[in-house]
C-alpha cells in the first residue's frame, strides 16, 4: 500500500514555517566544553518517567517545539517514520484510560503475594492529571527512505520512532516539562480510538506536563521495584 492523500500528514506552510529548530551557528561545529558535558550528564540523570503532574496547561507552541526537536532524531535510511497524534478529545482520552485499566488488571494478575501488593501500589500513569497526551506511531508503510537499512532488520523502523521519543523526553526535561511513557495499554484499541491508519504501529503513549516534583532517583527504585543495573554487568568483551 502506498501513502494516499487521506493518510499523509498535512503540511501547512504557514503554521509550520518555524517548525524546524535551528542552532546558534549552522556553519561552525559547536564545541561542547566540560561544563556542558557535565550538564548533559545531569540532564540524563534528572530525566525521569513522570507520573505525577500539575494540571497547569502547556502552550501548544511549546508542544509543537518539542515535536520539532524530536524530529531531529536519527532514523534508518532517513525514513523519519514517526507520526504524532495529539489526543485532545475527552471521549478518546476516556477510552484510552479504560484500556489502561483493563491492561493493568491483566498485568496485576501475573504477580503474586508481596510483589502483587507492591505492583498494585505503584502509580503507573498520569493520564488523570497531565494536560497533554501524545501518541507516537511508526508508519510502517512510509515511502521515505526507500527501504534503506531495513532489509534484514525491518524493526529498525520502529527503533527510529523510539529514538524520536527519547529525544522528546530529553528536550522536555530541558524546559522543565515532565513526560511519562504509558505502555500498559491495548495497542489495537488505541489505534482504533485515535482513528489512524492500520499500518501505523503504536510506539508510545505519552503524558506530558509540569511535574509535581523533580527527583534524581527513578520512582521504581524509590519504591523498591527494581534497582539500577551496573553498566559493567551488561557489557561484554569479545
Question: Quaternary status of these chains?
Answer: single chain
Radius of gyration: 19 Å
β-strand percent reads 5-15%
Order of helices and strands: HHEHHEHEHEH
Number of helices: 7
The largest β sheet comes out as: 4 strands, antiparallel
Intertermini distance = 43 Å
Q: What is the topology, as strand order, of the major beta sheet?
A: 1-2-4-3
The helix content, as a percent range, equals: 25-40%
Helix/strand class? alpha+beta
Number of strands: 4
Mean pLDDT: 91
Q: What overall form do the CA principal axes indicate?
A: globular
Low-confidence stretches: 1-7, 10-17
How do the strands and helices of this protein lay out in sequence?
Layout: H1 34-46, H2 60-70, E1 82-86, H3 90-108, H4 113-121, E2 132-139, H5 156-174, E3 178-182, H6 187-194, E4 200-209, H7 219-222
Helix pairs in contact: 2-5, 3-6
Walk me through what this model shows:
The chain has helices at residues 34-46, 60-70, 90-108, 113-121, 156-174, 187-194, 219-222, and strands at 82-86, 132-139, 178-182, 200-209. The protein has 238 residues and is α+β, with helices and mostly antiparallel strands. It has a four-stranded antiparallel β-sheet with strand order 1-2-4-3, with helices on both faces. Mean pLDDT is 91; it is low at 1-7 and 10-17.
Key words describing this protein structure:
238 residues, four-stranded antiparallel sheet, 12% strand, alpha+beta
Amino acid at each position: 500500500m502506498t501513502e494516499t492523500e487521506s493518510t499523509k500528514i498535512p503540511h501547512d506552510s504557514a503554521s509550520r514555517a518555524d517548525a524546524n529548530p535551528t542552532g546558534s551557528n549552522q556553519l561552525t561545529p559547536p564545541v561542547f566544553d566540560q561544563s556542558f558535558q557535565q550538564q548533559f550528564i545531569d540532564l540524563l540523570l534528572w530525566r525521569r518517567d513522570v507520573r505525577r503532574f500539575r494540571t497547569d496547561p502547556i502552550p501548544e507552541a511549546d508542544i509543537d517545539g518539542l515535536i520539532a526537536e524530536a524530529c531531529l532524531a536519527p532514523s534508518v535510511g532517513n525514513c523519519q517514520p514517526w507520526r504524532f497524534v495529539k489526543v485532545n478529545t475527552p471521549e478518546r482520552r476516556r477510552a484510552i484510560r479504560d484500556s489502561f485499566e483493563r491492561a493493568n488488571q491483566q498485568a496485576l494478575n501475573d504477580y503474586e503475594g508481596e510483589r502483587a501488593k507492591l505492583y498494585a501500589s505503584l502509580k503507573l500513569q498520569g493520564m488523570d492529571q497531565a494536560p497533554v497526551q501524545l501518541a507516537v506511531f511508526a508508519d510502517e508503510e512510509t515511502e521515505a527512505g526507500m527501504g534503506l537499512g531495513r532489509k534484514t532488520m525491518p524493526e529498525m523502523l520502529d527503533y527510529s520512532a523510539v529514538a524520536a521519543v527519547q529525544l522528546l523526553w530529553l528536550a522536555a526535561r530541558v524546559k522543565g516539562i515532565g513526560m511519562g511513557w504509558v505502555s500498559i495499554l491495548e495497542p489495537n484499541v488505541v489505534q482504533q480510538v485515535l482513528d489512524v491508519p492500520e499500518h501505523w504501529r503504536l510506539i508510545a503513549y505519552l503524558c506530558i506536563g509540569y511535574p509535581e516534583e523533580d527527583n534524581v532517583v527513578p520512582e521504581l527504585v524509590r519504591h523498591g521495584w527494581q534497582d539500577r543495573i551496573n553498566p559493567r554487568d551488561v557489557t561484554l568483551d569479545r
